[in-house]
Amino acid sequence: MNDLQEFRELGISEELLPALAAKNFQTPSAIQKLAIPLLLSGEKDLIGQALTGTGKTAAFGLPVIQTLEPGRIPRALILAPTRELSIQISDELNSLCGTKPLKIAPFFGGQLITIQLDELKRGVDIAVGTPGRIMDLHRRGKLQLDQLQFAILDEADEMLDMGFIDDIREILALTNPDKRMLMFSATMPQEIMDIAAEFMRPEYEIARTGTQSATNTALTEQYFHEVKREHKLDALMRLIDANNELYAMVFCRTRADVDEVTEKLHAKGYRVEALHGEISQAQRLRVINAFKKRKFPLLIATDVAARGIDVNDLTHVINYSLPQNSDIYIHRIGRTGRAGRHGVAVSFVTPGERRKLKFIEKDIGSTIPQRKLPEIADIIEAKKQLFAENIALLLETGDAEPYLNFAEELCTLGSHPAEAMAAMLKMHFKNELLPESYHEFGTKVKADESSMKKLLLFAGRADGVTVPELLRMICDRTGIRSNQLGKIICRADKTFINAAPADAEKILKTFAKDKEWKFKYDEPREQRGQRAPEERGQSAKKEKRAPGRKKVKTHKPLREEFFKWISDSE
Questions:
Q1: pLDDT per position as a tens digit, 6-39
Q2: Spatial contact of 81 and 308, defined as CB atoms under 8 Å apart
């Protein structure tokens, strides 16, 4: 039975132990073993360095909670780089308080400031927030910073990378000089040491559980695929198709890369979402919460946008774009192989990036091996295995028993029951399990787009339409799978779908009476003016001019130039 004796030996009081037991703490992590005694027994400032997911919040949170007494003005300030991390730290500290009546609250942009002003009015012991909102509240005269016992920078390297250095300096300059200052970070760049030299008291201590090159190689399997730039998307789809239980973050270098990869995967029917700096706060929170609940398996993100997201059970981290340096590489792959789980870090490396990879290997002190991409046979086998596992689960639960009589009838249709089974597999998989349906990098061969019909759906992103949900709806109601359809373009107010003529007709007939989803053929622009007047909803008769009304002449060259301009604008 776990009695949390090791936490007692670190100096944690009996008052906090029930909270640790409730959270199923077993033994202290490496950073907790180093930081907790230093914070409880001394008065020195502290820099704590440890990889993401190793318990840094409890390492500084438990001593702070144990030291503070309840009051009405903040005695501890914790700065974090993002809204999500601020909320996460606040929730974690509240759960560690147990019965101790400390008031802990997060403060961040994107929430009504009146809510936060009311929180401060009621009294806060520990304020957790982003630099921008903390500065805003202080300038309004609502947040006192001159009576702190602790000022803490969490994920300090990320805050510096995100450009918060000036805000951090301004905030720290407003705090009282006798406070204890703590900085916790996964990496320790020179900027961190500069902040320490400027604002920490002399002879500050350092608790380090690993260097910049320390990666959790015991739990994170690392390898790379050499892929030409133009083949990266095909390589990513091959990885997805070959891993049935994939739950991953895919890192791209730029916002444009994120949007392009997400849009193309959507068009192929994959369930993915994007995250980058130009996404609204409300949309960002929706995407992160849905990802944590596993409503979709792949999150395509930039490094900055992904900061502050805490997910412990990722199976993979995929470096779609190789990071610029080893610090970013370490931070990315530190998101998998956490909480004792095995994880995989995969990097796509173009032939021209082999030298950059060598620099990363040198910095982390480890060789990253090269592997071949999954073969077509691997993808087909993965699909078969998943299908077989789902059938085994149904047999185990007994949910398929109501269909036994029908199954026996179907087995009599062929000369052998296996023939009926083969026919059902053909109906379900179409050609997905046939090697000839694939070409290089596992991309399915689609019908010639030029022979397809284009359908127009009178709804788009502004109406909540997403390509994966649309594809699932079409499949559910028509049986037409995503690999049978052509290119899909989802715009703000409308969506275009390319489909074979027979499939297009089937979609139109299926949704003909649907009041919400309205489809029609989208005619080429050059044909729109060639229909008979009655087909365009106009009268075939010429309008008679009123007596005395003169015909207005139109300057032909000007008219043609105007319509050309309209056409080019579209």
A1: 999 999 999 999 999 998 888 898 889 999 999 9
A2: yes
